[in-house]
């Protein structure tokens, strides 16, 4: 089957069924999408201008060399930079688009940020400790892992944070909220070897993707994973007799040995799931600071990159339980 490649010149920043397709493909074809990071290259430009410090001169050079010249669009709605749309011939509302993730290629560097009063789980209460915000820069050139600080190493498991098709409702739609047609789901299991099933709402489906992450914990706790640009290879096909109401995913085995060394778990209990999650994360940040000497900012962005939030129970009213799990294998 043919393979089609889409470059950064096809980037758009909204979901909109009226967008002209960047390419038209047949079911069974493969598409290769070159993607920008979630900041539309702005983080790299700020490093180049000296606004964001990078501890390693070598990594600083790598980041500056990656600077993408075109600026993000101004005015109107602006969201994640997405590559596409891909029109799949024969796709019609009511069908299911089958998206096989064949490869997710990481870039040479990535970043994780925490911003006071941003979208992270504890941003508001940590505002005083985050100052004007914190960004950690990761060297991804090893391909399989990246060192966070001396003695802390994360395995990489890259995936697209945003992968979806156009909503049926007319007009432009923000990319931030996930929808029944996919989008900004941030599901870390969407790695190479997985298959995503998406309900189609418009003719041709109009698939787009972006916001690649080199790694992320379940929850994306500070609001970012290890954000990166990269390349995504997908094979697209259709199911006509298999209607679904929301995205479904067939996952491969865990791609790394991240959880084979056990975990340290902090549980949170509250009548509200979000508050239970906050309690669990607070306790885990305290553990990282006490046991490993991390700063609040370091503990927060590390948690976003590797800590999993899990619902342990939602039946024992009036309190629900959320657990935060820290993989111990990251400590060398």
Automatic annotation (TrEMBL):
Cited Gene3D superfamilies: Acetamidase/Formamidase-like domains
One Gene Ontology molecular-function label: hydrolase activity, acting on carbon-nitrogen (but not peptide) bonds, in linear amides
Taxon lineage: Bacteria, Thermotogati, Deinococcota, Deinococci, Deinococcales
Pfam families noted in UniProt: FmdA_AmdA
Protein name, as recorded: Formamidase
PANTHER family for the chain: FORMAMIDASE C869.04-RELATED
